[in-house]
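Interim report, section 4.2 (structural modelling).
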Amino acid sequence: MLRAENLAVRRGPCTVLSGITLQLQPGQVLGVLGPNGAGKSTLLGALSGELEAAQGEVYLDQQRLAQWSGSERARRLAVLPQSSTLSFGFLVEEVVAMGRLPHASGAARDMEIIGQALAAADAAHLAGRSYLALSGGERQRVHLARVLAQLWPGVEGQTLLLDEPTSMLDPLHQHTTLQATRTFAEGGAAVMVILHDLNLAARYCDQLLLLDRGQACLLGSPAEVLQAGPLRDVFGLEVLIQQHPERGHPLVIAR
Amino acid sequence: MNLVVKPRPLLIALGVLLLCAFSLSLALGPVSLSLADTAKALLNLLGFPVAGAEQAQLIIEQIRMPRSLLGAAVGCVLALCGVAMQGLFRNPLADPGLVGVSSGAALGAAVAIVGGAMLGGIPAAISPYLLSVCAFAGGLLVTAMVYRLGRRDGVTHVGTMLLAGIALTALAGAAIGLFTYLADDATLRTLTFWNLGSLNGASYPRLWPLLVVTLGVGLWLPRRASALNALLLGESEARHLGIEVERVKRELVLCTALGVGAAVAAAGMIGFIGLVVPHLVRLLAGPDHRLLLPASALAGASLLLFADLLARLVLAPAELPIGIVTALIGAPFFLYLLLRGRA
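Predicted structure of the assembly:
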């Protein structure tokens, strides 16, 4: 389980994130919202140990994140970056297999997991193809399968951090990807996902964190966070909030 | 683009290729030996006395065996270091020279050759050793500086290292130019030929250090094959997969400095092998380092032995510098594969 206490991050002289106290809940998906430059990716970087905290501390299972050994941590915490720079022609399943590096579960079990993770990311049909021959959205799904395989099947105590996993996906796959993330979380893993689409966030997240200029503006259920006032203050966007006619979650409509 | 060959057949084929290259390299030369004589001489050398090939044994033991071993080791270690650098820089076009080891070694050699001549000549008995030691030290020194310049706050920035490598290579080039300017005609010729590379004059005392380094690099790098694979995803991705990225980067730079430094010290500048062999193998076998490393080691050794055969035979009894041959046969082949891969 991942927990941040009074976290602050500085880049040069600027404080880009401050006063973040947060605990990711097992089995739940936390969505992080905010305008460009609000500190969403910085938060993810600090939670994953990639960025050094100027203040405060990140704990993974009661132990400071920095104290974990590399592979021990990798078995509990997986991170999907916004974009990847792989420029070598690995096969799709070889890319996903890298997610199994921290484990010593044996080739047979790994193969099984790779297949399941690919299927979960709706990328099973890409197996056997060269990564370089894929489109941007397909690559993004392959990397999702890779981080899913890293934690597969996803149990309590594990954490998955996703940085805009839907940024390059078509509308259908935006939904299938987030649905897969939800399903994965139901196994007990805690998930944090950075999103830009407010309606996707409303539909698939249990909790939402609204970031504004490096500070936590609101943390709560989608119904609590997605309200006209805060959205206007943070995004400068005039919106109407309705209820989804079938599902009941809030629906954000720009005026 | 992936012409995936199964690992085991590929390694067996490359192993057979290396055996052929090595045998031919022992048998052919200004004095051609029959394969039977070569085999007899080899058996004698291995301690199984067989009569009737005394001349062959002398030639092989004194001249061709050290030369073939030198060729195989240089090709092997250059190819391995090429794989390491392409993995470190996450770029299939990276070359071992990027971290400055080649230019540093060239500067060390220039210092030894020209400086030695200016001091009134180094005794012939120690001058080859002095040259090797200076080249090796120069390579290590410049690489250490590049590595140091690339580090900030305990993190090695590969991009900064690349730029530092370019800057120091230019600086070393200027220093070499200065030495070239100061050199007299005979020294200039030595320097030029050294820069083109040669397996000529191989001897056991100069061979052992390289063999030890090659063995070390060849045993160490495959232990980092999975880490190299993960590194290709990106440094932070590799870290999230539990790889100790800083340590792996340090090891890769160290292996390259030692490997290329030792190769250049023993055989001069032989370009192209470190850049192209990994690339060729990747076209055949895909980018997985667990296969790429051993396959590149075998292919690099074979390619260099064949190149040396050509260098010896084309203008026999004269000899072409091997650096010319590696570029002449490798570059067109590389272009061919590149164009075919794109089609």
